[in-house]
Amino acid sequence: MNPTASPTTSRSLAMKRIRPGRIVIWTILFIGGLLMVTPLLFMFSTSFKTAAQVYDLRLIPAAPTLDNYIRVLSDGRFLRWFLNSSFIAITVTLSNVFFDSLVGYTLAKFRFRGRYLIFIAILSTLMIPTEMLVIPWYLMSANLGWLDSYWGIMFPGMMTAFGTFLMKQFFETIPDDFLEAARIDGLNEFTIWWRVAMPLVTPALSALAIFTFLGNWTAFFWPLIVTTSQELYTLPIGLSSFAVEQAIQWEMIMTGAALATLPTLLVFLLLQRYIVRGVMLAGLKG
Amino acid sequence: MRTQILMAGLLAGTSLVAGTAAQAVEIEYWQYVYETRVTAMDQLIDAFEAANPDITVKQVTFPYADYQTRVVAANMARKGPDVLQMFYGWTDQFVGGKVIQPLSPEVFPHDEIEAEFFPIVTAMKRGDDYYGLPTAVRSLALFYNKDLMTKAGLDPENPPKTLDEMVAAAKAMTEMDAGGNLSTAGMTLDMGGQDHQWWREVLVRQFGGEPYSADYSQVTYNDAAGAAALKFYTDLQLVEKVGQRGFMDEGQAAFRAGRAGLTIDGTFRLGSFSSIEDFEWGVTELPANAEGVRSNYASYFANGIGIGAEGEELAAAEKFLAYISSPEAMKIWLDVVGELPARRDVALTEENLADPIYAPFLKGLDYAKTTLFIDEAAQRQNAIDMANRILIDGQSVEESLAQAAEAEQAIIDKAK
Amino acid sequence: MASMANQGAPERRPGIPGTPGGQPRGRGLSMRTRQLFWVWGFLALPVLFYGVIRFYPTLNAFWLSLTDWDLMSEPEFIGIDNYTRMFSDPEFWKVFRNTFTYLIVGTPISLVLSFLIAFALDRIRFGHTFLRALYFLPYITTASAMAWVWRWFYQPAPIGFINDLLGRVGIPQMAFLNSTTWALPSIMVTAIWAGLGFQIIIFMAGLRAIPTTYYEAARIDGLGEASILRRITLPLLKPTTVFLVVFSSIGFLRIFDQVYNMTTNDPGGPLGSTKPLVLMIYQTAFSSYEMGYAAAQTVVLFTILLCVSLLQLWLLRER
User: Fold this and answer.
1) How far is C236 from chain A (nearest CA, A)?
2) Other C-beta atoms lying within 10 Å of the C-beta of residue C133
């Protein structure tokens, strides 16, 4: 169970016997890994090519140019979409971190009538696919004037059953004594949750944050339906409409795609360790 | 009571805009994204605002694929536009769905409309009311790449005039690479583009058929003539091998990239083809058949007034609609977008008729037909599928045609 | 229901008033009542949210599925007409078949691939983080952006990346998205590609959670690598595998982004050969405005997903 135990043991094992089989496996894995990133590599490579060079299939452009980026960025739309996506993904993530853990904590650490009912009710929403809700959401948004607004894009995801369940699992591992001690010190329940319980589950919080952020950053279906004006598009929607506009000017489309992908790639390269750990945590407990 | 509500609405409306422009009425104009159209509309709005300082017009645009949905959605949310551009084929839906309102006959007298516009404008009339007016009309023509013609030993100043000449020219321009793959198409095959219009209103007639009954309520192309027309079309790929569906993703893209010798497209493409620098191109009337029969397909986007426009917004919307349907606006639209003016006297000037690019389209307008679509998207999809069944799945022309006719009749019947 | 907090309340009570910042409005109330006050304070907004944003729309969707509604007029109750129409519509069955093809072919392939890679990757130390990153990167890309990259890859010669490569080595072209046979597998590949990284990571986490003592014991017993894999690793990985089967199945059942973006000029591919249920729902609702009919389709999707989830619960209970 201890995650550090197995790597060290297998490392010492690996050191002892470096067999030709290992090298073959390594090479196959390496080639497979290269294949996995080939689309990304050519997306970036093509974004630095002129229209005439697109089909030369060279990974390193013969004469790299930033023209595509200048053309794509010049009208300011991509910047706007980037800001929209950032604002929406961050707001929804904060909301989830706050509410999911508050509800998860309440369900894990308090005994009250209706607790089980609420837990089952929230959990059961996991079974309802978003696709089933979009039509009612759409009508609701239309009646309340939420169509084509930030709130309209964000409201469905402000709390999730997945996050609540994940956080409940983690709060259950906190000993009650910690909380009781805080009560004796006279802290109110909100403060206990916020100051005492939350710091104890930071790995889960970051896992939840990573998942929610990624999910909202790449979300397509609902934003496609709820947004109408270009000013409110998120990056995925903006990119899609941009690509249709460009017909088959692949160097422009690849530049747009690169711009849409770059932010998450950079974040990943910086925080790889945490993201992988977060995905593991969320995947196993969720 | 009614005035009270109106007053409340006005108060709410003015308090919203009060911060930005005192007293000015702001109206919204919607159209779909197409670079030259947006540019042209920007120019028209500037000119209009200069002449009407008390009115501001906000232009809102959406991708074409989503445009209709956006209009319906916004209408439901009561956030619809005051003036909107719409395809003539959507009129039934938009009138039925209370998206647009009839044009006031005092502001837009019917006898003037019918005297000054091309007759296809009547497709905007329902009962006694007109529901919109076009700025420009569009027709089809054959575009040809002069460089490829020269390279293939053809005379670039003598483009094909008949279907047989067209196939011969396409054959001469077709190039295959060493692997037997098409590298330059003699002709583009793109049912999703304008080919479905060409097949319906032009080829079917040229092969002796009628695509629909006179009121467009019955599909009548499922006969020998229709089959011959469809066979001619699909044989371009299957027998003559001068083109291939899906080549370069879209026909217009292939032509633009200099990889296709011939393509059939509309006036609206002139704006985007005008930026081609790598080769010379020309445009000519759609080819006639051996007996000299010609046909064409004309269509237009009209501008209508949204149902939500009331009071001074309605007055402003009417003013704006009148302006963008004026001869002055049509000239700007022709210069920027390349679409033909919807008023006869603005379109059929000597200058335009002598223009090598506009003339073929204007000539086409003379004998063009306008399909009364019930559901343009579904009927287009039906034509795409009809061709795909033959080109990809190897179905026989007759079977595919019969299936398409049945499906299209169902689409038409469902709307009743 | 007799909770610890309740039992402990009387003893702790004296401590509270003396503390600075103690809750004045709670004074005089029992600890239990005060806690209930907090509990419902915490839950008020979430309960409202789940009620209005999740449960009401769910019921609404069921109701809409029984109506005929084009957004422009009032909804009209038509009983189960939408369902009878759907079940007699060949297009629906085609879409249904497509959706299950994504699921039935895509899930095993992606699971086997990700397990093999995770299994191999787990034993490799040299450049482990780097290799893992290569496999994981596609997972954090935006599906709609990568769909366009793949669309370019799949084009016919002379513009398609893969066909250009094939052409250079003299292999005949593949039609990919232009073929009714290959369009769906082509799109499926992009979906597998995008999801592989996640599954690899989860499998690796599952592999690491197996205590090394099990392996050591097995080696002492003289079991070979193959038997260890079959008798220890795979059985112990069952919860992980079940989770991934369900996760991946749900992903394939809901496939949309890739199909939408890769077939914009003939939505759903040539002759609808790639069209999944969600794209049909989208088109019915937001291109044809048949809200009631679309709602009926979402009910079908809901039912399928429900079966998959119940299957997961049943499989895990068996353990």
Assistant:
1) 13
2) 18
What Cα–Cα distance (Å) separates residue B395 from each residue in A107, B193, B400, C94? 61, 22, 6, 18
Domain ranges of chain A: 18-65, 72-285
**Does CATH number 1.10.3720.10 belong to domain A72-285?**
yes
Scan residues 57-86 of C and list those with Cβ closer than 8 Å to B. Answer: 70-73
Burial (CB count <10 Å: 0-12, 13-18, 19+), residue A142: buried
Q: Contact at 8 Å (CB) between A134 and A204?
A: no
Select the more confidently predicted residue: C285 or B8.
Answer: C285
Q: Which chains touch A (3 or more CB pairs under 8 A)?
A: B, C
Q: How far apart are CA A35 and CA C193, in angstroms?
A: 10
CB A96 within 8 A of CB A160: yes
Q: Using 50, 70 and 90 to split pLDDT, how confident is the model at C318? A: low
| Max mean pLDDT range (A174-183, C171-180, C275-284) | C275-284
CB of B126 within 8 Å of a chain A CB? The answer is no
Q: What is the mean pLDDT of each run of 10 residues along chain A (286 residues)?
A: 42 56 90 95 93 81 91 91 96 97 95 92 90 93 86 96 92 90 90 93 91 92 88 93 83 93 88 84 68
Segment holding A267, helix H or strand E: helix A250-285
- Measured CA to CA, the distance from residue A105 to residue A93 in angstroms comes to 17
Q: Could you tell me the pLDDT band of residue B23, with boundaries at 50, 70 and 90?
A: low
Task: Say whether B392 and C70 touch across the interface (CB within 8 A).
Answer: no
Burial class (CB in 10 A: 0-12, 13-18, 19+), A250: buried
Euclidean distance between CA atoms C63 and C71, whole angstroms = 15
Rounded to the nearest integer, the mean pLDDT of chain C is 86
| Listed residue (B110, B269, B249, B113) closest to B188, CA to CA | B249
Of B60, B15, B56, the C-alpha closest to B38 is B60
Q: Which residues neighbour C205 within 8 Å (Cβ) at sequence distance 6 or greater?
A: A280, A283, A284, C240
The domain over range B140-297+374-414 is classified in CATH as 3.30.420.40: no
With vertex at residue B186, the alpha carbon angle to CA B181 and CA B188, rounded to the nearest 5 degrees, is 90
The continuous run of DSSP H or E covering C82 comes out as helix C81-87
Among A208-217, B210-219, C53-62, name the most confident range.
C53-62
- The minimal CB distance from A135 to the residues C49, C50, C298 is found for C298
Which DSSP letter does residue B103 get?
A: P
- For chain B, domain boundaries: 2-138+299-369, 140-297+374-414
CATH topology identical between B2-138+299-369 and B140-297+374-414: yes
Chain A partners within 8 Å of C54 (Cβ): 125, 128, 133
Count of all residues that appear for chain B in the document:
416
Check B61 against A142: CB less than 8 A apart.
Answer: no
Residue B370 contacts residue B297 (beta carbons within 8 Å): yes
Q: Which residues of B touch A221 (CB under 8 A)?
A: none
Q: What is the ipTM of this complex?
A: 0.88
- Residue C132 to residue C125: CA distance in whole angstroms: 11
Integer Cα distance of B199 and B179 in angstroms: 31
Domains delineated in chain C? 88-318 (1.10.3720.10)
- For residues B369 and A267, what is the distance between their CA atoms, to the nearest angstrom? 57
pLDDT of residue B101: 94
pTM of the model as a whole: 0.85
pLDDT score, position A239: 94
Determine whether the interchain pair C71/B97 forms a contact, defined as Cβ–Cβ distance below 8 Å.
yes
Min CA distance, C177 vs chain B (Å)?
9
- Cβ distance C140 to A128 less than 8 Å, yes or no, reads no
**May I ask the CATH class of domain B2-138+299-369?**
alpha beta
Question: Residues of A with CB below 8 A from C299's CB?
Answer: 132
- Which residues of chain B does C264 touch, with a Cβ-Cβ cutoff of 8 Å? 65
